[in-house]
């Protein structure tokens, strides 16, 4: 009996002590700065990209109907699965919640034709995440834009699905898909698509590239939020205007004007959503301008002189490979330095 | 404000920087209170940049407030003085809030009468302050600064006399008084301007006199309109210019302030003196006034005790050497959710856990943050977004410095000018990946310094 009372007392004392300990503040130390801007995190940046992509996705679904929905579902699900599989193989914890794999999936889907068969989307996704990203060490470590790595692979491996004819499906119930793409129609037959169709997006092409207005809205949102650096699209668009202008001057009878160059093909989608990938573009504002200008120059070079109607993908990949060099050239002058 | 900057070719701001939450509201309305004299103070022999001071008193000596207890240990060093009356005890070791272990002289109060409360305030900042300082010679002023043991009170604690020693090769043409207080939370300098503008003006005039220039500018950020008003009124007729600057962190950094006010760039690795400018904090010039006019040493300073982790945030006039725990207790203690004690402000201050650490001449504030304040997102890989580049006030590439530090790549660190970083923390504040950039750069700098000594 006495023992019980004693025990109860001990328990009570212990309880009181633990209460006191609980009440005491827990002080810890850490290096400065002790505040951080929690509005801007890797995750919110990726979320911004998703928001910015929504007008593009909306137009794609409106124009290409089920083709767009299927392609999106295939690419996003495959990218997430690939991310899980490959990070698991590296023994890392799953990094799905940073949304970066979802972003890659959507951008990849938006850069493919709606009629590309499902296995093309899956293969492109696994290549994008596996070879484009995880092999280098995951988010932030890759050299090339993952979505473009995936697309480049299937473009070469499944040339028929992604070549000019891959964009046309005579049996399609969707009008847009029965036409040739504007770039191809011009390159092959000199047919000029009216600017208004290019602006609103009622033409054939890769899912996300057809509507200039959707790309502009999303792109401006990204630039205003500073999730994308305005220097890159400015560099791309500025260079295309200059080079397209020169091409027009040299060849005044061509009906494919600077405006067609700007609004047609994947230019705006590429300038705002693909080239602006922070991981694979330079760090300094000056470097970003050079990167944008270089991308614009390669796009025009490929469009005018190569056999391909469009050059955004290769232009971005080439400039990605030059990014470390650009960083080296553009070490900024520190305050008070020479 | 345009007209103020016309003659200087400057825009009133500097490139880059960040806008952390200001949070001055905790304490900016609290008038400076004089803390009751403590029973004991610990006076560290190294409270400043440079060489430690040498003890000048033996244990068991009786001292009164203001007696010299330590001599400067070199040119870049300062004297120290008794900050309460009492008996000198055996020299011990204290751990400062920055983690350094330094010898310190304890003084224990006995039953002697201590100057306190309003009388202490009057002794330090009250009464009349002369506006005409022409009867003081430059040497006289520098000697008085040196004898008073004054260091920069803004936080860096650089011995002040060194800045004003006449230098034939590099004459000073502008004295810049730093009243930016750009660190969030801190309000000590702000309250000083509201409550002790007279000694500040006299001190600024004396600093100008010491450097042989009439061109004196006080730089205040535009988030302190009351201080601007008070200082403009106080400076009327003295020829001192009040420069109102766009609020931005780290404006209070010497090089950024010089850029904002004069448009001049201090050369890399150089001092403001290289561009003919001497910069002193606003509380420091008040100490100069007291040292020169009243021949009194630096014994007390204003410390802001603030943050959501403190029950009653206050601005306190405290004797140097008082333990920080006593300050916190005087402000009602810590709240239950207090998470981090910081000596200084949240951007550049040191986190510490030892409440026995003494207030030093460079302690501008004690900020106590809560768990909510210090919450951080999980660290991810760098996504090379370049936001650190966009905010770095020194125009560096912080992510490359962090990378170089991580890999101990000295060549890369030097190519990206790692030594130019003054650890303001703008990059780490802005980093979406929550990378500990400043901490990495600190280790990187240590590696570079170690390599250069080999």
TrEMBL record, chain A:
GO BP terms: electron transport chain; transmembrane transport
Alphabetical UniProt keywords: Cell membrane, Electron transport, Flavoprotein, FMN, Membrane, Phosphoprotein, Translocase, Transmembrane, Transmembrane helix, Transport
Known EC number: 7.-.-.-
InterPro entries named among the record's database cross-references: NqrB/RnfD, RnfD_bac
Compartment(s) of residence: Cell membrane
Any single GO CC term annotated in Swiss-Prot or TrEMBL for this entry: plasma membrane
Superkingdom of this protein's organism: Bacteria
Pfam families, sorted: NQR2_RnfD_RnfE
Function recorded in the entry: Part of a membrane-bound complex that couples electron transfer with translocation of ions across the membrane.
Subunit structure, as described in the record: The complex is composed of six subunits: RnfA, RnfB, RnfC, RnfD, RnfE and RnfG.
Record's protein name: Ion-translocating oxidoreductase complex subunit D
Species of origin: Desulfonema limicola
Classification of source organism: Bacteria, Pseudomonadati, Thermodesulfobacteriota, Desulfobacteria, Desulfobacterales
Underlying gene: rnfD1
TrEMBL record, chain B:
Membrane topology: Peripheral membrane protein
Co-factor remark: Binds 2 [4Fe-4S] clusters per subunit.
Protein keywords: 4Fe-4S, Cell membrane, Electron transport, Iron, Iron-sulfur, Membrane, Metal-binding, Repeat, Translocase, Transport
Domain 4Fe-4S ferredoxin-type: 372-402, 412-441
Principal localisation: membrane
Positions with a binding annotation for [4Fe-4S] cluster 2: 392, 421, 424, 427
Subunit structure: The complex is composed of six subunits: RnfA, RnfB, RnfC, RnfD, RnfE and RnfG.
Organism listed in the record: Desulfonema limicola
PROSITE patterns in alphabetical order: 4FE4S_FER_1 (PS00198), 4FE4S_FER_2 (PS51379)
Designated gene of the protein: rnfC1
Biological processes, Gene Ontology terms: electron transport chain
Cofactors, names only: [4Fe-4S] cluster
Entry superkingdom: Bacteria
Top-level enzyme category: translocase
Protein name as annotated: Ion-translocating oxidoreductase complex subunit C
InterPro entries found in the cross-reference section: 4Fe4S_Fe-S-bd, 4Fe4S_Fe_S_CS, Ion_transpt_RnfC/RsxC, Nuo51_FMN-bd, Nuo51_FMN-bd_sf, RnfC_N, Soluble_ligand-bd
Binding, [4Fe-4S] cluster 1: 382, 385, 388, 431
Location(s) in or outside the cell: Cell membrane
